[in-house]
Design brief:
The protein is an alpha+beta fold and 104 residues long. It has one helix at 3-21; strands spanning 37-45, 52-55, 60-64, 75-82, 94-103.
Length: 104
């Protein structure tokens, strides 16, 4: 490896380490497991009784296995696995098997 390449790699590594040490004070979120997504939006009641959906800017997700205490109107960030193949009685939105919920 020539000297110029070595210096460039060292500079990039140093910049990456410095950027990581100047965090915002928030804990880092763990990476998403394969196949999971994270979306933010507002919870709405579904058209069928007992169904809750999350309306984002671009999609509508049916919340599957979410905390039953989640109320309509709540602004949430939800992590989960989309299950477009899943049959549900709600028949509204893309079924999203919820793994984590937090305020948006």
């Amino acid at each position: 490896m020539n000297r110029l390449a070595s210096v460039a790699i060292s500079a990039l590594l140093a910049a990456g380490c410095a950027a990581g040490s100047q965090g915002s004070g928030k804990p880092l979120e763990p990476p998403l497991p394969s196949g999971e997504i994270e979306v933010s939006g507002v919870v709405e009641l579904g058209v069928e009784s007992g169904c809750r959906v999350l309306r984002t800017d671009t999609e509508l997700y049916q919340l599957i296995s979410a905390d039953p205490g989640i109320r309509a109107g709540a602004r949430l960030t939800v992590r989960g696995r989309p299950r477009p193949d899943m049959m549900t009685t709600c028949q509204q939105g893309i079924p999203l098997q919820v793994t984590r919920v937090r305020p948006a």
